[in-house]
Amino acid sequence: MSRYTPRTKTLTIPDMADRYPSSVPPGNPPDGYVITYSGIDGYYIALPPSRLLILNTVVSSPYTISETSPDDAVLVSHGGAFIVNLPTAPLTGTSIFIKDFSGNASAFNITVNAPGLIDGGGSYTISTNYGAIRVVFTGTTWVILTKF
Question: What would the 3-class secondary structure string for the chain be?
Fold first, then answer.
């Protein structure tokens, strides 16, 4: 009979004071964040948990996505023109997916505004029924990864 001996590894997470300067002590991510490996950074980082938000006609336009816990996907169900404002200063690498959930965007556009730029412009308009856009924050600007 063989015995299994578990191996232990120590997970080293770099100082994150620059990512979470207002936490106590600085560098600690907020409660509920998930440790995830980042191939871009090459180390483990803390990210907010995945969230899905469905906006309907009860939510008034404009809707501003929270900086502290940005939504991964915003599904807009609307009967009139709608504005979605991206966060001002989210974490670098924050990715947000915005979709016309009701199929009304050709008649009632969804305007996505950014405090900086979105691919060089101040806003992006979803004007195709069931159209969608996925943007990511580079640290200084928003870039479009996918649009359809």
Answer: CCCCCCCCCCCCCCCCCCCCCCCCCCCCCCCCCEEEEECCCCEEEEECCCCEEEECCCCCCCEECCCCCCCCEEEECCCCCEEEECCCCCCCCCEEEEEECCCCCCCCCEEEEEEEEECCEEEEEECCCCCEEEEEECCCCEEEEEEC
Most confident range, picked from 3-12, 57-66, 129-138: 129-138
At the fourth CATH level, which superfamily is domain 50-147? Answer: gp9 (2.60.120.640)
Rounded to whole angstroms, the Cα distance separating 81 from 97 reads 18
- Contact status, residue 84 vs residue 108, Cβ threshold 8 Å: no
What integer pLDDT is reported at residue 127 of this predicted model? 95
> Rounded distance, CA 13 to CA 17, Å?
12
Domain ranges of the chain: 8-47, 50-147
Q: Are 134 and 147 in contact (CB under 8 A)?
A: yes
Label the pairing between strands 110-118 and 82-85: parallel
